[in-house]
Amino acid sequence: MLSACAGTVEMVRDVARTLADIDLGGVADVFGWQTVEMSPEQAAQLSIIPGARPLWQNLIDESQAGAFSPVFDNGAVYGTGVNGRVVRFDAASGRETASVDTQRVLSGGIGAGDGMLLVATFKGEVLAFDEKTGKALWTAQVSSEVLSPPRAEGGMVVVRAGDGRIFSLDAATGKRKWVYQGATPSLTVRNFGGVLISRGMVFAGFAGGKLIAINLSNGSVTWEAVVSRPRGATELERITDVTSLPVMDEHQICAVAYQGRVACFDIATGNQIWARDVSSNAGLAMDNHYVYVSEERGAIVAYDKNDGTSVWRQEMLSGVKLSPPLVRDNRIVVADSQGYVNLIRNSDGVIVGRSATDGSAIITRPVPLPDGFVVQTRKGGLYALSTETTGVLPPPGVLPAAAQSPQLQYLCSLVPFCKP
């Protein structure tokens, strides 16, 4: 969804506040989540890949009007949906153990930290609950809808509003401590990016391709970096927003822009280390060796995190929309708009596992668990899976020189005529 005229934006918000007149199908398809352009040949090739080992599944509210994801904290999984119920699940079995009715229409995922559970609404309300008892602690108001999970750390709650402002609230009272507001282009992509908090800093990507580092204690800007600059003749062509969370290690932080680039910067100074052209409105992940990007058109790409060299590219999922990736063990976990969860080997990009859920899109990043991960679908399904697969992959066969992709090597190894 593109945001432009202020009156139009306010109209959209007014509609969303009640959900009474909202076209849920249209909202769900904001980024083309219901559009699938996968060929029958692709589907046939993907269908022979072993499944991931299931751990458990459960169900919460259907959430067509927001991007909802669970959170794992203190041995439990917490989830919520648009209808306002906050539910606690046992992380090992998936059994529901407690719930709280917020009596609100919620607009995004749930946050946890400092002993609290945090949710927000289309009206810009931020609600805090005691994690152990479910008791309501406080309610605060920000400037507009909150589409990403509030974050809590160091006695502060940081909330990103739909108009691009970032608010810091006192974790004990909900009282406002500071507000950051940057420049916003006339046309932007509505997104669920949120903020990353680490080392006493708040990191966030913005419209126009900017990555900002903000001091958590007082809201001052430590540095500002350019992930991507607008290019093109029209306003649509010039959109280059950072719509996802950045990722970081001990030395560098990386972000990716829609219709732009992936770029990594020195954490302390904001100086650019490397950048490569790519387009993503989903996001990226990082491990000890690589940066992984879920591209706009369904490819997964791995870059050497030291210099940005392209290491491998997996295109078997081209034609579907991808979630942000999660690094888990030696696998990259990425979900898609068909409701599948895909396990990709981090060393060479081969898809080694693929499991169906309920057929509805999974648009948020899979959430790590002690023995696997969990995803939340648009229909409200919670699916916990292992990174282990239910089948055994045979060793790759020998292919003609024309067959270059790791995935084709794997597929060829399954049929006799590809053997030497």
From TrEMBL:
<keyword id="KW-0998">Cell outer membrane</keyword>
<comment type="subunit">
    <text>Part of the Bam complex.</text>
</comment>
<comment type="function">
    <text>Part of the outer membrane protein assembly complex, which is involved in assembly and insertion of beta-barrel proteins into the outer membrane.</text>
</comment>
<feature type="domain" description="Pyrrolo-quinoline quinone repeat">
    <location>
        <begin position="83"/>
        <end position="314"/>
    </location>
</feature>
<dbReference type="GO" id="GO:0051205">
    <property type="term" value="P:protein insertion into membrane"/>
</dbReference>
<dbReference type="InterPro" id="IPR017687">
    <property type="entry name" value="BamB"/>
</dbReference>
<comment type="similarity">
    <text>Belongs to the BamB family.</text>
</comment>
<dbReference type="GO" id="GO:0009279">
    <property type="term" value="C:cell outer membrane"/>
</dbReference>
<dbReference type="InterPro" id="IPR002372">
    <property type="entry name" value="PQQ_rpt_dom"/>
</dbReference>
<dbReference type="GO" id="GO:0043165">
    <property type="term" value="P:Gram-negative-bacterium-type cell outer membrane assembly"/>
</dbReference>
<dbReference type="InterPro" id="IPR018391">
    <property type="entry name" value="PQQ_b-propeller_rpt"/>
</dbReference>
<dbReference type="Pfam" id="PF13360">
    <property type="entry name" value="PQQ_2"/>
</dbReference>
<protein>
    <recommendedName>
        <fullName>Outer membrane protein assembly factor BamB</fullName>
    </recommendedName>
</protein>
<keyword id="KW-0472">Membrane</keyword>
<dbReference type="InterPro" id="IPR011047">
    <property type="entry name" value="Quinoprotein_ADH-like_sf"/>
</dbReference>
<dbReference type="InterPro" id="IPR015943">
    <property type="entry name" value="WD40/YVTN_repeat-like_dom_sf"/>
</dbReference>
<keyword id="KW-0732">Signal</keyword>
